[in-house]
Amino acid sequence: MRWSWRSMYAEEDKEHVNILQPISPFKNVGRVGEDIRRGDVVLARGRRLRPQDLGVLASIQVAHIAVYRRPTVALIITGNELVQVGQPLTGCQIVDSNSLTLAGLSRRLGAVPVYKGIIGDDYHVIKDTIQKTTEDVVIITGGTSVGAEDFAPLIIQELGELVVHGVAMRPSSPVGFGFIQRQPIFLIPGNPVSALVAFDAFVGPTLQRLQGLQPAYPYAKVRGILTRKIASAIGRVDFVRVRRTAAGVEPLRVTGASILSSTTRADGFVIVDKNSEGLDEGQEVEVYVYS
Length: 291
Known about the structure:
- The protein is of the alpha/beta class.
- The protein folds into 2 domains: 72-210, MoaB/Mog-like domain (Molybdenum Cofactor Biosythetic Enzyme, Chain A, 3-Layer(aba) Sandwich), CATH 3.40.980; 220-289, MoeA, C-terminal, domain IV (Beta-clip), CATH 2.40.340.10.
- 21% of the residues lie in helices and 29% in strands.
- It contains 6 helices and 18 strands.
- The protein has a 6-stranded mixed β-sheet, sandwiched between helices.
- α2 (98-108) packs parallel to α5.
């Protein structure tokens, strides 16, 4: 009994094999250079490596590559009124939420947050804590304005250089920035919405630069039509929280920098340029989406 076979590609016919489908040149043949050719740039500098990037590097026998070290960020939270989450509240105390928000924002950008604890409004204790930090970047929240217990700007001036103190933006106008030797120090307001905005505007780009990346907001951008006018002032940048609805982009009716829940009710924010007096109802705007 003769063995015979037939497939969709060929069949046996006595001493012959009949080809049933045409075969194009080099079909099922891996050609030299079809994936990567000699001289190709495989991965450019400044790229955040993804799982498939590592696979490509392995495929061309690259076992070791030079990368940027993840920057460390010291989180120094100041304020006599603050307690850690989970601790009982007495008198005029409030829970520290900034450390959690800032730590999460830092991790999202590839940095490593180092929590230094809650420091009371004591000049010498704050100064001592700052002097002992060895992290790449330092964030100090609270005590950044011009009140009697706002010690952070004075300490930075004493230990190093206070480059900026006060920015024409809302929220976060008391934000500051300086150096102690080559260590960048950011003074961020204690109000939680101000802390979030100040991080996105100033700290985030610094962390990206330290990792060889081009600064950019880590949010998707969409366009929409304003359902209500946004008022602003010439010379000031406004970060306005908005919701995306079926009717369009709706500004939230809140202005307080302490209303942290507004950032969870908001879908994102709109930036009003410093050269604008505001945005009109019906105007198309660009929304930075939190998610």
